[in-house]
Amino acid sequence: MWMFAGFVTLIGMAVWVYRRRLEDRWERRSSSTPEPVPGYQQAPPLGDPLYNYVYRGRHSAPLERIGYYPAPDVEFRVKVRRWWDVLFTTIGLSVACRTGNPEFDRIFYLVADQAPLCRTLKACGTTQEAMLRIYRECEANGLRFRQLRIRCERVWVEVVAQRRRSRSRLSAPLKVFVPLLRELSEAMESEIPETARGQKDPLAWKAVLIVSISSAMLITGFLFLHQRIFWPLPGPIRASEMVSLSISTGIVVFALLAALTIAWLGRTSRTHLVLIELALAGLIGAAMTSYALLRDVNMSFDRSSALGHPVEVRDKTAERGRGYTLHYLKLSGWDGPQEKRGIRVDRWLYHSVRAGDRLLLEEYPGRLGVPWIRLDTDRSKIAQSP
Asked: Where are the transmembrane segments (predicted)?
């Protein structure tokens, strides 16, 4: 049951992440028009600025997106050039779209794999200078440049304040960047020919699909491990044995996804970006999801007979932390491994027994060779056990 739910959750999360990443959804609210009617999406007026504010917690500066409509029908992304971009392009795993402008190529990294568009951008001097002015304005206003996107006939910049600002000052970037985005839109409109427009990125959906799988594994792994905190039994006797098996499985899954990325995407401008995200999210997510699924496989497909141990509750311990409570039962009558505080159980079982009560501990060898146990409070089974 839990294994089936795990696969369904994994697939559902992959579809959800895929849709959000591929469509790049965020509420592009017009800064000068009333709130739209719920359920009805309309294009903003021509020449209208767009704004989005994402709260990221008390200790983090907000993510702000400032956009402008309309823009040419092209699709690419501009981000700050990092050392890993240089590394992967140097070894030949990724291919950078270089413009020939030393300052532009030193600061920016173009994520674009449409050959006509890359050739066109090399000759767009005014467009390059407009992007550089946006970057310089970020530095002058104490903002960290995240990326510049041109998509769906909209152009927008994502910035993060280097230090927290009050909510009343959030409109400052809007006044600063909208004129620059308007100039950028006009420069692209005049310099990019019709032959380079209307071309969708042919590799975007492939990259998003691979990243969605890795993100879904990470989210699913967190969900199921969080569930196991509250329902630890039935479970393996030694969690370390299952952890080592899940890590090995996670490495194999990560290697397969990395091989699929290289074979499917080839040498593109985003190959290394997908591999980095796989290493950060996919490897951890694959190990966590493998632990949850292998744990259920080990128990659900175990058809062997249980070895019953009548045990007695000697002591009960509750360990409280910030936002959680762990419950333990100290048992006698079983020579298996127990923590110093005893065996961790769920909240229901902890409150349903008292010191001196008798339980039936059932031990199984496990389908994958990892022994596991469960506790039964059925008095009839306890009486029939030897």
From this structure: 203-225, 245-266, 272-294
